[in-house]
Amino acid sequence: MLEKCRNAKERWGGVSDIIDQWLEQRQQLIRTLFSLSDCEIGKPLNEQLTLFCDLLMDYLSSGHFEVYEQLLLEGSEFDDGSVDKVQGLFPRIQPTTNAALDFNDRYGAFDSPTLREIRDFAEELSNMCETLEDRFELEDELIEVLHNAHRPVADEA
């Protein structure tokens, strides 16, 4: 997952500062997610989990309220049909947003977990990894469609 993230940054990192920052947030989110698997139950896990949930909410917010908006604005300015091509991606991204929000609601304050909560957490963390991987692929597709549609124009400038 981290390697895919690096490749995305290499391919699209120059599109804008907002996308650069967003892809860096993604890398930090992934690193923190992987660090959760090394934590033991107790204070270190609680601290890492709180950090992960905070980063997750920041990443989601940046995507929905900055990056997607900027990409759609860019696409509409070029008026080349690229916006129509990506409109089908947003309904596919939304379930990943809902899953991330649910995860944050459940585990954002993971103090004194029961044995059942610990068992559920391991499974839900695994599910969150898969959800984020799906989301990153959809977001990469969003960036690729809009960026590739406009790259020839940008190269001529």
From TrEMBL:
The keyword Transcription regulation applies. It comes from the Bacteria. InterPro entries: Rsd/AlgQ_sf, Sigma70_reg_Rsd_AlgQ. GO terms for biological process: regulation of DNA-templated transcription. Pfam families: Rsd_AlgQ (PF04353). Keywords: Transcription, Transcription regulation. Signal peptide: none annotated. The keyword Transcription applies. Belongs to the Rsd/AlgQ family. This is Regulator of sigma D. It comes from Marinobacterium mangrovicola.
